[in-house]
Every structure is written in structure tokens, then in C-alpha cells.
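Now read the record:
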Amino acid sequence: MSVVIKSALVFVLLGVGLMPVFGQEKDFLPVEGEVVEGEFLINKELEITLPSAQRIFQKVPPDEIDSKETDPLQYTFKNYTPPLTDIRTRLRVLKLKDENAIKTAPGSYLKLGFGNYYSPYVEAALNSGPSKTGNYGIKLHHLSSKNGPVDKENSGDSHNSINLFGTYIGSSASIGGDLEYNLDKYHFYGYDPGAVISKDSIKQTFNNISLGFDIKGSQPESAIQYAIKGKVYNISDTYDASEFAFKTGLDGNYTISDNMDARLNVDLLFASYKNPEKINRTLVRVTPAFVFENNGLTLDVGMNIVNHNDTLNNKNKTQIFPKVRLAYEISDNISAYGVLEGDVEEVTYKQIINENPYVAENIPIANTIKNLDIKVGLKGSLIQYLAYDVGVRSALYKNMYFYLNDSAAANRFNVVYDEGNTSLFQGYASLSYFKNNIMGSTLSAKFNAYNTGDISKAWHRPKIELDYSIWYNFYSKVKFTADLFVLSGIQAIDFDATEPVTTTLEPAIDLNLKVDYILSEKYSAFVSVNNLFNNNYQLYYRYPTRGLLAMIGFSISF
């Protein structure tokens, strides 16, 4: 862990050391997608989360947005609250998606790049541009690597997507929708290098088509605010596993008085899962709540009423959990908060393969029951633009799932459930600095202690997670971005030994750098280097990631 600590400290000092200097730079051009004019709806209960890391090399596209997710953080700082759900190690495809694009233009662009491992990158978008009545467009994406870390083409992958989207803004509501197709290809390369393997026998392909919609009220002065969104998708793989699902949700808010609101959230999931037998699964969640605000005290009191069936025992059950959130402003710069809640966390086949595309056939799917989750913490600002959040969390789960290598085919993973009680104690801390569109820096850390019931270990869940990111715009011409993340304490079972033994994976330490350079109003170029330490670390046992990847490219906006 000395390397971990030194790496994190170097980046912290780098970020802090640059802060006084960065304040002298000019403002950068607007970020991609920036709304020049418009009305802003302020949600007092919004919890802003940092963007999901897009740096791990063997990765899958992010999960579809559902009714339980929040909007990703744009680099305009508000009070930061880190995600407090259980840690799920995710393998995601490197999208090369610049979340703070230097140049926006009208939103139409073409990006091309090429890197080692024979890695072409193409991204293009046509957008009608913002208007008073809405916008529409199309976006294409491709990133692939012919070769990988094990036997070259036997560990290559490919990721492709096409997305059609549009939004109509009316006098009383806005309506949006999107149609998307994703094609992702992998290989089960977690075998001993050099073994005689047929490439066709280890191929895995996922086809996913989805249709989404959202309807939002657009009258901020109204006492009733609402948002309805939904998505229907169908995903299938090479081995005839498939899932058809429909998800929809309603978020409603009624202002009773200046210091009291009534809220109602409703979520519905219907999923038909085939692998190989067909199982229909449903989940309905209704969350009524009242929110009181007075003299710096905010009290959110409600409950989660959930009806669902569970593929582990095929039971239909209704459960009621408390949901209480309390926040108190100790001073202008310090707030204390506490949360006590329970819930049923939906688990789908799509979610599983987004986390781990190397799962075996015939895996079971079951929801995770969060019987109790308690959090307490402090958050606030130290100086202007610099904020912190620190706290502890204790949660009790049933049916939490884990990944374990198959004893007969070690290059594939079984999904195992703890049908007993899994407890999680977590300490977390974050430090965030954002200076307009000039620079930003975030540091987050989580320390997790699992105690399992019917299984011996929390397989493939990290004990330590560190994440540091810094970006800076130089003279409206150059943008520098650096990211460092560390995952440590991941455990697995080695079935190749004389007797199965527990093995702890080496810490995953990944440093990524990127430089964007503005050549003109329409043209820019970039150079990126991922996994600068050239470590073939493993997030899942027997699956090393690629070493250093260097890529060069350019973009045209119009």
C-alpha cells in the first residue's frame, strides 16, 4: 500500500499546489452542450455525484439511466455528496468521452483517433442545436482493440453504438426520447496464456436495443412538479441468454407551504429473463414522503413500499422499509446529516453483464434486499470553491451477489448470492475543488469492511477505493487532464492449486493523462496515455488489463 499512498499524496499535492496559480487564467470556452439561455429548476434535495470513472481498459458501457440514478456532475460545483450505495466493481469500456469538452460549437462534431493494440476510435454527432422548442440529433460511437493482454486477438474487444434522440419543449411540459443500439464483443481470455484455444469458442457478443422517454413539467412556478421517465430494452448474448425489460418511474412534488413539501416516487420494473428457462420478474416501489424545512433543519420522512418476486425462491412478497433523512446547518459552511433507510435493490441480467461481461451461462438473477442502511456525516466548504464530505455508513443486506471463478471453467464467473446476512461498514471522504471553467480537482476515498453470512468472503469486492482527478485549461488553448484510481483488497479463489485457496489480487493502480489542444475555432487535436504505469492489474481474477495505451487523434466541430 506504500505505492498507493504515495501516488495519492503526489496527486493531492499537485492539485493543491496548482490552485493559487489557476485562478489567474482566462475563462475557457463553453463546455459541450452548455445552455446559453433558459430556466433552471432548483431541487433542494439533489445529491450531486462525481462522474463514473472511464479509465479501466476492459470495460463495458455504463448502465442505462433508471429512476434511481442522479444526473452526472458537470464542472460547476455545488454541495457534493458521494454515492453511498454498496461498491460494485465495474469494468467499463474506455469511451474517450470528454465530459468537459474544450469546444462545444452547436454540438455537431467528428472525432477520430488511433492507438496501439490496433485501437481505432470514431465518434460523431449531428445535433440540431438548442432552440426554444427543443432539439434532435444522432450520435455514433466505435472503439475497438484488435489485440489484448493475452494471446493478442484472443483478448481483443469491440464496442459500437448508435443513438437517435430528441426533445420537444412545450408551454407546460417537455418531452424527450431516444432510440439506441449497442453491440459489444468480448473474449473469455482468462485462461493460461499459450494454451491451445479456439478463438471462436471464447467469443461473447451482446446485442442491446433500447427505447427511452421522459416527460417533465416546465412551469417552475407551479406548486406541482413532476417527471416521468421510462425505458424498454432487449439484450441478448451469444449463448442464447436474453432479457426483455420495461422500467418506468414517476417523481412528483407538491408544495404545501413555504417550508413543507409532499413527495411521491413510483418505480416499476418488469423483466423477462431467459437463461435457458424463462422467468418473469416484477418490482413495484412506492415511496411517499413529507419534507419539512425550518431554521437550517431539513427533515425528510417517508417509507419504501416494495412488492417484488425473487428468482432464488420464486416468492412474491411486499416489504415496507423506513426512509428518513435529516440535515442540519451547523454554520454557513458546515452541515451535518444522517440517513436511515431500507430498500430492495433491483438486479437485472443487463446490470450483471455491464459489471462483468465474463459471466458463465445459466446464472441466477435475484434482487438484493437492503434491510437497513445508516449513514452519518459532515459536509461543507473550507474555502471558496473547496468542499468536503466525510462520514461513515453501516448497512445490512440479504441476497447480496458476488463473482466467483467457475471451478470447472476458470475463465468464466458464477454469480453467487449470500442468502444469509451481509453487513457492510464503510468510511468515506471526499475533497472537491472547482474554479469556474478553469480547473477542477476531486479526491475521494472509501474503506469497506464486509462481513458475510452463508459465503466465506466478499468475492471480488474491493476493500479500498481511491480516486483522484484533476483538469486544467491553459489560456483557452490547452486542456490537461490527469486521473489516478486505486482498488485494493479484492479477493478470489484459485482453483488451479492442489486445493482451492483464497488469493488476494495485487492493488490495481491506474494513472491516465490526456492533453487536448485547440488548433482553431473548428479543429482540435488530442493525445492520451492510459495506464501510464503499464500494470497488467486484475479487477477480476485471471483477467489482466492491457498495459500502456497511447492514442492520438483530432476532432472537427461544425
